[in-house]
Structure formats: C-alpha cells, structure tokens
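Progress against Task 2.4 (sequence-to-structure conversion) is shown through the following example record, which the project officer requested during the mid-term review.
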Amino acid sequence: LEEAYNQEPGVIQHIQGFQIDPRAGTWAYAFTEEWPVPTDRHQLSVTFTALRPESAGVSGVGDLLLNYRLQVLGMGGAGRLAMAPRLSLVLPTGDPRAGAGRGGVGLQINLPFSIEMSSTFVLHLNAGATITPAAQSSVGGQAPSALLDANGGIALVWLARETFNALAEIWCQSTEGIRDDLSIGRTNEVVFNPGVRFALNVS
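Structure tokens generated for the chain above:
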C-alpha cells in the first residue's frame, strides 16, 4: 500500500517490487522513482512495469505511469494524519495482445491516508480507481465502453525498532477485462500480506 508521505526536499527515492506465483508461472515487477518538486508539498514520479501474465505465457514490458502527488495533510511529517492524493497518467507501453497492457491511455487516482495511532503503530488506508476509455483486447478489438478498476486496502505497521517494522496488509482489487467476444467481465481479488521490512543505514 502507499504511505501518505511525500519525499523530503533533496531526497530521491527508488522503489522496487517483485511478486511471483510459482503455481501459475506468473510474475510482476515494478520500479518507481520519486522526486520532490522541490519540497515535499509536490512530488513527481515515474513507474515502470514488467510482467509475465498467465494468459500469454511470455514476459513483456507493461504500461508506464507518470505520477503526481500533492501533500494535503502532514507536511514535513507534522501531525498524526497525513494525506497525499496521487493522479497518474497511464501510458499504453505494454502489449495488450500479450496481456501486458490495456492498449489505451488511462487515468488513475489513489487516495492514501496515514494515521499515527501511537508511537509504535501506524495505520495506512488506500482507495483508488483507474479508468481506461479506449482499451484494446488481446485479440485486437476495442472495448465497447471504458474499463473501470477499483482498489482499496488497509495496512497496520508496528514500528518495532527504528530500522525494523512488522506489518500486515489487506488489499482488495476489482478489475474489468475484455473477453474474446468483446464483452466486459469483472474479476475480484483479495490479498492478505503479512511481512517485515528493515533498513540498512550506510555512511
């Protein structure tokens, strides 16, 4: 899930994520680079994706996201509540015939909230949607109407140490897709993700 904190002035952050399903033989990779512009009030970022979808069985580049986030609440980490809405332009760099992209320009919005519940627990909430007005199917036809995806999630983070956190996330996603007959179907998914994260500080 997204945390509602923009990058500090003078700091560029690189984020990488990799997810694999050995049973289905699928994987997905994302790389995001974030820049403050020039303070943490405004943030620009770009997200590159690559994946191996189950439907195609081949690897390829996914769609590219150009992102802007505005720190509405919690400037400089001040206060218990932070909010940083994100608006993204989704560019169709992935091949829809390989199941690696939508084949059309899309618009995505996400609303991340972060709440400091105490000195050791932080709650993150996300809600968002993506619309693709002219998506393409894997067989080359165009969707009869715009595709609308929705997502939401909640994460509880335990700040066990300054450089070590334990967390549990629940992520829900509802995605529209184009069938071979060019009708639109919807797929719903719920993921529970327990995990840990740690930091290595170098001089």
